[in-house]
Amino acid sequence: MVGHQCPAIADAPSYGLNEEHPMDHEPSRWMSQLASFCVGRPVRVLLACLALVGLVNLLVPQLEQVVAQDSTPIVPKQAPAVQALGKMDREFGNGKSVGIVFVVLERDGGLTAADDRFFKELLPRLRDDTENVSFVQNVTSKPEILAAVTSKDKEAVYVQVGLPGDIGAPSALGQIEAVRDITREERPDGLNVAVTGPAATIADMSTEVEHSILKITFVTVGLIALILMLIYRSVVVTALILGFIGVALAAARGTAALLGGHAFEVSTFTASFLTAVVLGAATDYAIFMVSRFQEQRRLGMPAREAAAVASSRVSSVIIGSALTVVLANACMALADVGIYLTTGPAIAVGIVVTLALSLTWMPAMIGLAGARGWLDPRARPAAATGWQRLADMVVSRPGRVLVAGLLPLVLLAVFYPAMKPSFDERVVQPDDTESNVGYALLEAHFPLNETLPDYILVSADRDLRNARDLAALEQMSAAVARTPGVVSVRGVTRPLGTTITEASLGYQAGEVGSRLTGAGEEVRAGEKGAHRLAEGAGELSTGAGQVASGADQAVAGAGRLLAGVRELQSGVTRLSDGSGEALAGTGQLRAGAARLADGLDSAYDQTTVAVNGLAAAYDALRRSLTCGIDPYCSGARDGIRQIYEGERDRLLPGLRQAADAARRIENGTVDLQTGLAQIDAGLTRAEEGADQLAAGSRTMESKLGELADGAEQVADGSRQVEGGTEEMAQSVTELRSGLEQAAAYLNETGKAAKDPAIGGFYLPPAAMTDSRFALASGLFLSPDGHTARMVVLGDTDAFDRSATERALEVREAAHQGLRGTPLEGSEVATTGIATIMADLEEFNTADFRLIALVALLGVFLILLVLLRSVVAAGFLLASVCLSYAAAMGLGTLVWQIGMDRPMDWSVPTIAFILLVAVGADYNLLLMKRMLEEAPDGSRAGIARAVTATGGVITAAGVIFAASLFAMMSGSVLTLSQIGFTIGVGLLLDTFVVRTLVVPAGAALLGPRLWWPRANTQGAHS
What phi, psi does 161 have (nearest 5°)? Predict the structure, then answer.
């Protein structure tokens, strides 16, 4: 370029020494020999290189094929959330599922019968693919389960499908694609079907990255070609460099494919990052050599010799530059996060291959083309170049220039701490990917996080299906439910998100209180009855006394009755004897008949009175309830009955018959003999009745005596009953009062205990056999009962950063909730997408610290070996760290603050490795030249070093930045952010750090820059 143009690309880049300042540091012998060999036998070297590159590409599967077989997950398998996910699968699944996807079916207006049929037929077809599907949720076995996965508007339904591949592992991509292929078969028209979920999200992102690689490669090569043409204005030079970077890329990809899966792991990101870095590095190394060749040609050196000298003298810088990149990227092998494990080592290997070709292919090609004059430089203008003027200004005012250079870097670096990395892999890919479409369908028809909850697992060495442990689980669930941002906690004690009503002590206390209140009312009603019972007992006592007194009187009357009956018996006997005499003495018949008739009438009347009295006594005793209970009274009553019935049925009829017959005899109206016969028969019957009457009277007298004794006992017992019932009535009153107090207390307790903060939980053993508990137990308790699972739903998106922060709070709340319970000290684990992201953030932070520390130490040691100066090595390392911080601050300002697109979590680590490594390359190139030009720290020598390296470093920096900016042409936001951040970092390093800060700082430090290295040459004027 001409001198008046921008210093960034002014004139052809130069990396040579002025004639008056020959280099005092000769290259090593073996480097010179290697350069001479390659330049002297260019065709052989080129063919050998092509053969090796061809072998690693023809005999080894392509990198994409190797990537597809890899099983490295993004999140480390040792992450607690990943471990918990595996445990949950073993306890509640089939132990074969690592990744999870959701198949969503949706139709606007409602699912049709054809859709339902397709859904039911889809499930067995998925289960049949045992190679790619580990399990399919059985949602059709129970109506309540099918209802749970069907939206309320009946427009959508989903099913969970397990995959054997790890989330993010390339091997899982094929499994997800197989599931998608099955869902496309026989799909009804108009039915929307999408496979989504975390595993599908990573798969879609990887697919987008893979599809972007070819586009990124074309854009990168196009930008490099354009910049090379602007710098060199030579088709041959441009073609030579493009040819080299093409061979380097093919060799790097083939070697990565050869070693991938053996020496290190690979992923979809491997190809994209490898492409960008190798293209940029190969271009830089080619520019270094071409520029030095042209510089030697300007000094008049023959082409082949110039090629050998350029190669031997630039080789040390290229080797040092490559080693910084290799070492920094190799440090990623120490990481746990998959994206670092699968990119860093592969990039390191790719740079080693590129370095090898730089030391062999490039010298041979330069020697071959240079000998034909195709690479000769254009004439340099006599006037001072822009880089010379800029260098003079820097060393003349180093303090001001240093402040001017540091000020924008520091101002940009201020924004770096404000960066809040995003772990949402949905936003880094287009909205129309199938996983994002599936999320949109779920969000439109189902509650937030319905398919992406967090999980808590509690494991013990015993069966948790007992009242005490279930109460402990409820206490923990209540503690988690109180965590800010938690909407619902579902578990065995609260299957629907709230505590089982019947298991709440508040509910149980209320129920007991209600029942006690009812019992109190019944006691209140019975209290009057108790008092009436006491009154009746008093009346019973009085009546029993009266019965006893009457029984005594009945005994006395029975004695008199018995005496009369005996007299009657004697009279009837005499009448019977007299009737016999009457038969003999008929002469006296009439007078005797008259007297007999009168006597019989009188006897009849008296007997009638006695019979009526007995009838009344018997009737009274028959009606008496007390007499029916008392055996003595009952016996006396039976005796009276016998007497009464004998007099009524035999004695009275016989007396009446005898009296009538006597009257007929007296009146002479009947035959005497017949009448006498009738009299005799009647008297015989009367005699029998009198005998029965006498026996009954004796029985009555005996029983009435016993009745009198029993009645006395009844009276005494009744008096005792009366006293007892009075006491019982008083006790009932006291019982009612106590029940009322207990009911009031329990009702009050029931109301208070319903508050989850202070409420209790009790599930009795009988409830555990209930079918409803069995259903909930199967979802939330492992078959052996040793592991309990809780489902936690939050109020923000599961991928949101707030969900990640809440997941950590939930984990702590779960531990706190078990304190003081029988389950204190049990194993508690949390998992779910938010928890996994929280673990990923912890691993990412730890990896960044480890990688940064080891990379900085490694780069420092390389700089120290090459420069042999602690101050120079430390100064360069500090400058590239500041450049990195400024680049991250600018990225945060542009993406997070300006565009409201938070930086992806992987950007800081990858940007650090590449910026530190590549930034150290350029500064190493400058510092090596300073060591040559100003070993005593002279400002004039520093200016010459800046002038000599300005063009080549600027060209290299712009080209490398362009190769990173090309990543923004892809469809994945992560690549865009990484490409942008590293690209602007390289430009900052090229135009600010290397151009202003480093030379100004070196000018201020002077000879101290090379401490403790001893000066070997005097200062240059």
Answer: -125, 130
